[in-house]
Amino acid sequence: MIKTLHFFVILLFSFCLTIQVNAQIELVPPSHPVYDYLKRMQVKGIIPEYNSSNIPISRGEIAGYLKIIEGQKLTGTDKYMMEDYKAEFEFDMTGSLRKSTNLFNKFNSESIFGNHRQKYIYNYADTNASLFFDINGDFYQRNSKGDSIGNNAITLGELGFRIRGSLYNSVGFYLRASNGQKIKGQSKDIIFAANYDPLLKANTKFVNEQKNFDSYEGYLRYQTPSNWLSVTVGKEALYEGFGYIDKMFLSNNTIPFNFLKLDIAYKKFKYSFLYGSIKGDSLGIDLQSKNIVSHRLDIGLTRKFKLGFYESVIISNNPFSFTYLNPISFLTSADLNTGAKETTDNNTLAGFDFELAPIKNITFQGTLLIDDLNLSTLYKSDSTSNDNKFGYQLGIFWADALSLPNVNLKLEYTRLDPFVYSHRSNKSSYTNWDMSLGHSVPPNSDEIALNLHYDVTNRIKFNFLYQFQRSGEGILIDSITGKLIINYGGNINRGDGDLYITKINFLNGNRINRSIITFNLVFEPIKQYFVELKYQLRILNLKYLDRQVNESLYWATLRVDL
Fold this sequence. Notes:
This protein is mainly β. It has an 18-stranded antiparallel β-barrel. Strand 23 and strand 24 form a beta hairpin. The longest helix is centred in the first third of the chain and has 13 residues.
């Protein structure tokens, strides 16, 4: 059986050119903790060239950073973490598989529960190609208790696989697929789980059938040998922006979507073009199509100062257009010159961000988001001034905070004007499956967030997050005529009424203050076996009702990733 499988793999890749494969082409998902490690090393001045504003990046790029870190003076915990990453990214760093275990060839307790080698169900590599096959399983328990969400408890199980590899050092492939099932829980528990998990919320099968759910990511990626050009076609999570706690442009607040992405890099410059398909509706009615097109230009002006420019357009009910497929264009101008009778059908956004590292262990970032800008109404006091919508963010990252090794402290302030991310047609909101593509706070809100992360050891990680949010919400509709009376601009999926009713000042409407406290502990007792515990307390002060609502959420996860 083993010889047969080896023969099949060699035959599958026999068309590849005989070029040594050392670094993998495929991307590392942005949720991988190695990005936190690289960011910490950047802030400490060890890899100042690293840019966290446009991820994921390839395994080869990550291996290059790890090689630099390996030769530096590190804390004890950072050294042990480096040893774990050297095992996981061994093939990308050295081209060998000496620190990995192939469970297909050696299936025993030592291989399954070994604590130092990277475990694969199957791996293969020669001078032409590589193939890695893993399985993963998760067991979740999620509970809630609160005045508004009630008492809920649901148990979920999930099993999946992952296959990745590279062909002749130019083409990478990746596929992760899983299927999950409700083990225990009632209808109300399913609604609770879907409301607090983007994956479940976007899984209509789970919500409707109330039993099974599934997900996948997969893509093909071409990369030139020097990585000056790469093209990715498929589905994967994408993050864009310098935000340390949450990002303004593309974030993890929704699920991955299908896209075509072009990346060009030369020295201090990196340019990205994205054309993607997202899910949308208008007042509960599904749209035939909804797309996102974006450009991003990153410039590393110096080792201490980075600058980025971003623009995007959300296109509804137009499945494909060469106007937006042009990777070298100005999207706002392209949208205004489509020849359409209405130039407000689509939602255009632009912005820029920067990161400054004035001294070792500290960086600052700032972001400005321009949802709409009309200079003729910028300083008016009537409803037309609502046509100007901005968001901004300021943040600080402090590594080894208070001289405590392996403690990272982040502080970030974010403000979104009324109607930011939303759109007056309700079709082109900056959302995917009704969830924000950008920051998690609703429009007409601000947030101050404090995050403390402590790597107790290389296998024990503690995270504390405090968020204080202020929001102005509310939509009033005439009960007889159904006519919109006022919209305070606090609902990302309802942008109608911004121009023809009244000027909406920041935090007008039904005022709500939220205090959200989150504790998270991840324990890896054996390499690639995880236990995660999470507790969240949400205190909602409904000031317009003079009422306070308390909610508690509990998560427990057992995960195996082989």
